[in-house]
């Protein structure tokens, strides 16, 4: 991270890959989870991630002018595909 290339990569990553972690911390306060045990925390994080993804899908479809029901049907079809 001390090199200029490393700093450039870190800056790029912070705006793309790491943004969800900041959102989870800031909005959902996942650092202050009132749970104990790995299974309980994983379950709550699954719910938080699902809610976040649902909100993102809704906002993207609204922004792009897409039909939300068609997008949901497409996601459903993807989920039904078998992985070889």
Keywords:
single chain; 73% helix; mainly alpha; 2 domains; 0% strand; 84 residues; extended
Question: Can you count the beta strands?
Answer: 0
> How many helix segments?
4
Distance, first to last CA: 39 Å
SSE run: HHHH
Runs in which pLDDT lies below 50 for 5 or more consecutive residues are: none
**Computed structural class:** mainly alpha
Short note summarizing the structure:
The chain has about 80 residues and is mainly α.
List the helices and strands and how they pair.
Blueprint: H1 4-16, H2 19-26, H3 38-64, H4 68-80
Structure description:
With 84 residues, this protein is mainly alpha-helical. It has two domains: 1-32, no CATH class; 34-84. It is 73% helix and 0% strand. It contains four helices and no strands. The longest helix is centred in the middle third of the chain and has 27 residues, at 38-64. It is extended. The protein starts with a helix and ends with a helix.
């Amino acid at each position: 991270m001390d090199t200029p290339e490393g700093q450039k990569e870190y800056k790029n990553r912070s705006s793309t890959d790491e943004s969800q972690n900041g959102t989870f911390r800031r909005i959902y306060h996942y650092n202050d989870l009132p749970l104990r045990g790995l299974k309980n925390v994983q379950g709550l994080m699954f719910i938080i991630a699902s809610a976040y993804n649902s909100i993102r899908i809704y906002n993207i479809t609204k922004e792009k002018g897409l039909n939300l029901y068609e997008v949901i049907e497409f996601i459903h079809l993807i989920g039904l595909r078998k992985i070889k």
